[in-house]
Amino acid sequence: MKSILEAPFMTEMVRTLTNMYAHTWDERNGGNVSVLLDEAQVAEYLDVNAVVRDIPTGFEEPSLDGKYFLVTGTGKYFKNVQYDPAANLGIVRLSDGGKMAHLLWGFTDGGKFTSEFPAHMMSHAVRLAADPANRVILHCHPANILAMTYVHDLDERAFTHTLWQMSTECIVVFPDGVKVLPWMVCGTNEIGLATAEKMKDARVVIWAQHGIYGAGRDLDEAFGLVETVEKGAEIYMKIAHLPLKNTITDEGLKQLAKRFEVTYPEGYLDD
Predict the structure, then answer these.
(1) How far apart are CA 168 and CA 163, in angstroms?
(2) Are 34 and 92 in contact (CB under 8 A)?
């Protein structure tokens, strides 16, 4: 059987987490990532019937029963993943309506998946319903997004509109806009449910004074999505205190949407 450490999904996960830490998005043990895997992918590298141990999930999501996930561990530093993937990552299969996770590989130091695992799974469920190709949920703490939530109105239309105006590519990369949650206690099913509700029709959810959740078809897409939102927030934080002499108009944003054949939410641009 092939080495799991040489699996493309594993090498890409390690590369992405290392890059996220280098971007300073994931200080200390901040942030978490989960990737939906196909059984055929996993079976090339692991005996899918060999369960290391069972871990209760603390939630229920029948639609994910039998699905496999590569996920970051609780309390783990992204900077260490490249040196010891087996201690910092795990591959699990959900069962019992999502209430149990069978550990197939990883968490070799006795650890378990991130405390945000229920929130990830709830978001996976709604994103799969919206787009069966969505396979990644990525959460991190980019500084400019956090800063923006302290000084900008948290209204979703207003927040989205401001980000779209910060860079030509923004409306192209996230035409569905961003959703925003007010500050909530993290690591709870309550914030997981609230995030999933927002994820039904958007791939970005911003947790005020905390961070961002992004969804994508693969790690590159999810990373690039967050990267683009964060760049928009960085530009805003650099110019918010200055008088604007130029901007991208709503007419310009409409032209971009038409040129790149993307659809934005109704009412987000002036008629």
Answers:
(1) 10
(2) no
Give pLDDT tens digits for 37-80.
999 999 999 999 999 999 999 999 999 999 999 999 999 999 99
CB 171 within 8 A of CB 264: yes
Which are the catalytic amino acids?
Answer: 116
pLDDT (tens digit per residue) in 81-93: 999 999 999 999 9
**Cβ pair 181, 205 in contact under 8 A:** yes
Residue 270's pLDDT is: 85
* CA nearest to 52, candidates 97, 104, 7: 104
Are 32 and 88 in contact by the 8 Å Cβ rule? The answer is: no
What backbone phi and psi angles, to 5 degrees, belong to 55? Answer: -130, 120
Residue 209, Ramachandran bin (φ over 0: left; ψ between -120 and 50: alpha; else beta): left
Could you identify the residue written with the tokens 């990373």? Answer: 223
